[in-house]
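Friendly challenge for the regulars: who can give me the structure tokens for this chain first? No prize, just bragging rights.
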Amino acid sequence: MRKNLFLILLLTIISNHTFSQNALSLKECIDFALKNQPKIKSALIDEQLTVEQNKEVLGIALPQAKATGQFQYLFITPKQRSSTDAFDFSSMLSFFKIDTPAYINYMNQPKQKYTELKFGLPLNTSLGIQVSQILFDAGVLVALQARNSLEELSRLNTKRTEEEIKVAVSKAYYNCVIAEKRMTLIDENITLLTSLESMTTKLFHEGFAERIDADRLTVQKNNLLTEKTKIRNLIDLSYALLKFQMGMSLDNKISLTDELSTESVKRNLDLDKVIDYNNRIEMNLLQMAKKLNGYDVKRHKYGYLPTFVAAVSGSYASQTKAFSELFTLPYFPTGALVLNASMPLYDGGSRKAKLQQAKLNIQKNENDIDAFKQAVQLESSNARTQLVNSLMSLDNQETNINLAQKVMNIAQKKYKEGLGTNIEILQAETALKEAQTNYYNSLFEAIIAKIDYQKSLGLLK
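First reply, four minutes later:
Bragging rights claimed.
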């Protein structure tokens, strides 16, 4: 038993370790985020909340049934005052010429105008059931019509959240890729300078170079080592941001598989794409808001119509003086069929004001749609301009890095052949490092500009 438990634990640890070391593509990171990001989880919960709220509205429109029961103990029985004329029997007794001591005593008593009568018994029980059904209610009718639109609004909000997550994860992913590229270049340059430093130190000991030549290379190498530490910290922060955007534990270790190059930035890129506003989730949300406000207008218009509710009820009731008789005396049935109707006649103009507010909200929706179209045009134009500039800069920096690499190769060859100095090496290395830094900065700016451009057109996949 212990052996089996140990094996299960070991397999779990290995599985977790394997997951934590996953190499992920951008698509895999996005897919993970769309399942685990707290924002998307909340958006999906909002969808379910809307479904449940619609069920609540539907429940109001369906028949309502309830059972009732009551036990009542009247420790003070209600009384009612009544005139004594209804209980005066003197004329009837005189008619029959009754002449008895009791009659004489009754006739000689003082007459009171009123008397108090008790109604009911102290112990009362009742059991009943009631079923009601809304026949017509304008508010409920409009709410039922708006159910699908409300659910669609929730789905659109989820799609907007998904798009925001895709943008955030994509930018964080490529930020990590660029940081890793910079680390690779730093390592290559450090390796190169270490080799040259070793060669120069050997030449110094042999009397073919000066000490200052080796020291210059050492200083340059130490500067790169310091920069490497900074880049390592930057990489750690970049990965932490990526995992945060994915909704992944920061303790997990991941690596990235996608590469980034000039060709990948230019791939599937159409700079002459015509704007289709319906591709933007925000436009769909604005149109849906306008549609829902239309339902609000309809609700207030129908508010002037009457409301009809039908109900049927039945009950059994019993009255007694003693607890022992509660379950022995007969219960008397009662049944009723009720039709309730109500119609607003005058409300001081409040409903008319609400109707006008709903109409004004539709006008605001139309203005928001027009403003959004203008904003999309501006956003798309700016994103396209930024992308064109970034691509132009990227091409220039790619040319520069190729030239700087050629200069570096020539300087190395001359130095090894004894025809050049280490100053030329340092200058070439500095120029190459600057060209590499500028290239990868331009590459990152270009991919970010591409993401923003695709987002502005609603084409982000």
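The chain has a mean pLDDT of 85. The longest strand covers residues 123-136. Your move, everyone else.
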